[in-house]
Amino acid sequence: MKSLYTEDGARRAIEQYGAKHGEDVALRVYTSRLIGSEADLVLHGGGNTSVKGELTTIVGDRVACLWVKGSGSSLDRVEPKDFPALDLAYLRRLRSLGALSDEEMVNQLRTHLFDASSPNPSVEALLHAFLPHKFVDHSHADAVLAVTNQANGAVLVREALGDRVAVLPYIMPGFPLAKAVAEVYEASPNVVGVVLLHHGLFTFGATARESYERHIELVDAFESFANKRATRGASVAVDVGAERSARARLSAIAPVVRGLVADARSGDAGYRRLVMEWRCNDEILSFCAARHASELAQTGPITPDHVIRTKAWPAFASELPADDAVAREQLTETVASFRVKYDSYFETNLREKRVQRTKLDSAPRVVLVPGVGILAWGATKKDARIAADITEHTLRTKATADAMGGYVALSDADLFDMEYWSLEQAKLGKAAPRALEGQVVLVTGGAGAIGRGIAHACAKEGAHVVIVDRDPEGARAAAAEVERAHGAGTALAVDADVTSEASMRAAFDAACVAYGGVDVVVPNAGIALVRPIEELSNADALRVAEVNYIGVLTTLREATRVFRAQGTGGNVVVNASKNVFAPGKDFGAYSASKAAAHQLAKVAALELAPLGVRVNQINADAVFSYGETKSGLWEEVGPARAKSRGLSMTELEAYYRDRNLLRARVDASHVGNAVVFFATEKTPTTGATLPVDGGIPEAFPR
User: Distance of alpha carbon 395 from its chain centroid, rounded?
Assistant: First the structure.
């Protein structure tokens, strides 16, 4: 590992932040980001940094101050605001206490902030305060953990670095650890760092550069030592093309696993679903194929901080047979065994510690499948990606530790303390889940106006959306819009044609590979044709029916395949049309094809009810746009519809608005809201048709 510090980078940081926050804080931000940019040092909120200095209060007093990273902030993108400022002199007085509970520690930190609106300081703020150095850096470097997580970890640290660092056994973060680090430093004041077994590395210095570069130098020394000591490997060679084969298998097993890790809510509230992130490369496949991979993988995490993201260990499946039915049985046993093991872990720790805790769900957050790779799960794609990132580093570090002699994890008791530690759980946030959190919505015709309205309405409620369209550029643009509005990973663009069975199968497979499965399917793709019956050819009628009717059939069939694999129910919401009940002249091909799809959806409601799948429909009328996106259907048929009514194109939208009872302009977002209503299952409804048309009496459902 090499230092990334440059004078130009430091100068730019000072120019950007120095005038308002001071040079020390500016350089603290700069070197913190350097640490955060190295995934081998910290991941997703891990690690913490600080700087000490003076702050001028509102009454002009100069007081000693500690700026420390806020809890949960990610070092790779910290700003000055992410470093809450605390009364350093007061914090140091706390060291005289014999004990300090976690709750009281948090209270003391919050009541001695200089800005009450600051984020909560790191749970290791007192550790930073008790050390005398101006700058302090802390990471969970993979190389350090590969060395420390051994039966003789302390001895190996001494072999690697001699007396340049002090070594401490694992101690739970908080007041006791802060005191222990201060004491071990004072006993060896010439050390440039402190190594915490099973936890990580602290370095310190008089300048930001000194503390940072000491950190990099020590991690580099650990890397070199580990590489020299590694004599055997927890990996095997993998076949060429293994990753391609893994992807093909994943599309079949992902929805199975997704159903297994879902949890039924109480009553009739459905399921708490999770979203998947898949990782697969030669290194991962090699690890999973190794002889003792299952035993090694199912040891505890490399640092206990990871337990809130990955749980204490992953589920590890045995190699799956080619037969999907048998593979399903094996996966079911794998997840069921994990749940039993987790329940036992929870109950054992409650009993032995004599404490009361509310149990978290018992589903795994990581499932390792030989030949397929890492299946990581989270309430959001972001959460799943964090779990996958951690797992990749965990497998690599465990393989290195194994090659050095043998990986040793912390005890279940220590992991339980971290997993159920209120201060660690606080990092995950306590916001109430949104109505469609964890659900995946697939929308055909997703690049059009109505498709975009549906996608945004569902994403706003926490869903991840798969935007399927035969216009790949439009699908990508629509997905990008959703991601800009709702976050990275919330949308996937898929180029597919609803008239092609192979194309739609591939579309659903893509959704399974990206997110693990699908929960809400919205057959929305449609085309129109304005032509009187006497001029309507069979070829033209079939062309419209192929999209509007057969396209719905194809979509329903592929949706059923995934719903059946998941076993957690689901929703289909067909975007039918006001024309089903109230057709218009010269619109025979469109009206008949929509009526056929409408009838098909009613049959689907009958057939899919045993799977817990609800099938409902929306009859919308005259949706001309969504924001700046014009309806392609109306752009095509609008001139002819205007002509048939003796109107100009500029008068057409007002005509449709004024003909409904409410004189309402029907927007694509209204259709989206109707999809959300059905998808949230607020009523036990299937086989229903909901008009979204402002009220057209002849189109009332009957």
Answer: 20
The arrangement of secondary structure in 7-229, i.e. its CATH architecture, is 3-Layer(aba) Sandwich (3.40)
CA 451, chain centre distance (Å) = 23
Instruction: Quote the tokens at residue 95.
Output: 């060291």
3-state SS, 321-390, equals CCCHHHHHHHHHHHHHHHHHHHHHHHHHHHHHHCCCCCCCCCCCCEEEECCCEEEEEECCHHHHHHHHHH
pLDDT attached to residue 233: 62
State both tokens at 109. 């930190």
What are 544-573's pLDDT values in tens digits?
Answer: 999 999 999 999 999 999 999 999 999 999
Report the topology of domain 242-428: L-fuculose-1-phosphate Aldolase (3.40.225)
Q: Is there a catalytic annotation at residue 590? A: yes
- Residue closest to 317 by CA, chosen among 297, 303, 347, 346: 297
Nearest 10 degrees: Cα torsion 240, 241, 242, 246: 180
Nearest to 112 by CA among 126, 91, 129, 93: 91
Q: Using 50 as the pLDDT threshold, list the residues of the chain that sit under it.
A: none
Kindly name the residue from 590, 602, 626, 643 that is annotated as catalytic: 590
Told to judge if 643 belongs to the known catalytic residues of this protein, a careful annotator would answer no
Domain ranges, ordered by start, for the chain: 7-229, 242-428, 440-693
Rg (CA), the chain: 30
State the helix-helix crossing angle for 208-229 and 381-404, rounded to 10 degrees. 60
pLDDT of res. 636: 74
Find the helix packing angle between 632-644 and 649-659, rounded to 10°: 90
Residue 603 has a pLDDT of 98
The DSSP-derived string for 663-698 is: -PPP-HHHHHHHHHHHHTT-S---S-EEEESS--GG
Of 52, 134, 594, 626, which residue is the catalytic one? 594
Q: Comparing 7-229 with 242-428, is the CATH topology the same?
A: yes
The model carries a pTM of 0.93
Contact 320, 371 (CB under 8 A): yes
The 10s digit of each residue's pLDDT in 614-673 is: 999 999 987 877 777 777 676 777 777 777 778 877 778 788 888 899 998 889 999 999
Q: Show Cβ contacts of residue 524 under 8 Å, excluding neighbours closer than 6 positions.
A: 443, 444, 445, 446, 448, 450, 451, 454, 575
- Class of 440-693 in CATH: alpha beta
pLDDT at 652: 82
Measure the CA angle with vertex 244, ends 242 and 250; round to 5°.
100
| DSSP bridge pairs for 70 | 121
Identity of residue 121? P
CA dihedral 136, 137, 138, 143 (to 10 degrees): -140
Encoded tokens for 81: 């605001």
User: Angle at the Cα of 188 (from 183 to 191), degrees rounded to 5?
Assistant: 115
